Amino acid sequence: MVVNIDRLFSKRATRFRASEIRELLKITQIPGMISFAGGLPNPLAFPVDIIHECIEKTFQKNIKEALQYGTTEGLTSLRGVLAERMKKNNHINCELHDILITGGAQQALSLVALCFLDPGDTYLTSVPAYLGAIQAFSAFEANCESIPMNDEGIDTDSLRRNLERLRRTGVNPKFIYTVPTFQNPSGETMALGHRKELLDVASEYDFLIIEDDPYGELIFEGDFIPPIKSFDTKGRVVYVSTFSKILAPGFRLGWVIASKEILDKLILAKQATDLCTNIFSQYIAYEYINGGYLDKHVQQIKKLYKRKRDVMLKALKEYFPSEIKWTMPKGGMFIWITLPKSIDTRLMFQKAIAKKVAYVVGEAFFPEGGNYNSMRLNFSYSEDDLIKEGIKRLAEVIKDELATAYQQDTFPPEGV
Ligand code: PMP
Ligand code: G9A
Q: Which CATH class is domain 8-45+300-405?
């Protein structure tokens, strides 16, 4: 008998959607393609020699333990050095028992969803939002409410209005998801006042803040703005970060800092999911931090990405038509482009691919869709001369699109 597999899938599984970014990774492997699509670290930013050294140290000191199962919480020594670093660099008051090591930040987001979202629950996200988070949360059959951003970060007036509207219908959101620093996808940073205000609002309406901070270390200029977690005295913020952008995503290592009650639940969810995070890579990450390599290496990554951001900004200024707007990120890996309303970046995508340049359509970052005239560009991955060439190609595609839109607007001529 033929298996009718669709009948057997869970309702949840039927809601799974492919991530545009993951799908795009295939396109970007086409020879000659210049990709501004995936948020990939530059391979030059991988500390290959240091990693080699850290692996050798692990072989000399702990190879038997590194090949064994580990605890679900994660390697004690790694959690210890991480806690010290979080206190020193990020002003987050934490100890090793406040930290859970996860399989990347992505797993942390999934575990949060597993622990907090029932079908029919509501959560909030600032938009545009990191696509992977939307994907992780959407599997749990919860309702998503989008809160727009303004120049300063989250639009707290709109947030309050939305919360009042939800309250009138008896809905109390479980959490808000946000990337306050050098946001993926916009590159924007939430101002200090807005961070504090967001925490006040969360306290007033009693929901959690899921603060995702993969890019906070990659600061090129301007003042360091402490994470929301650093003001949290009541355990209202779940802080998530990752080694993907400061060591290598291949290690699949991230971490969560949260209150004991939340962490205990996340640990149980993780036990059921994968028992423990890759212990071998945790030993390497420990040696990387403990040997003092991380701080030095982050300086080099910042220098490299700042240069790439500058190359992209210069090329945008040189080649893009004047009616196009873009963000000026002071760190991170992304620039957000806003085109005239007449351009639909979904339709333009195939034309860009034909010219061998790729981006992510802006719509992908809005759970409710729309915003078709926007796109995200990654500047960390491509070589400098290819950044310039790619922006030149993209500018040609946009100019063609603008000319076509103009012809359509003015045709047929008046009176015909
Ligand atoms: N959150 C954000 C905002 C990201 O940009 C990413 C990766 N691009 C992740 C989480 C997932 O990172 P990881 O590799 O640690 O799973
Ligand atoms: O899915 C990945 O490869 C991580 C990158 C995420 C992004 O491009 O935002």
A: alpha beta
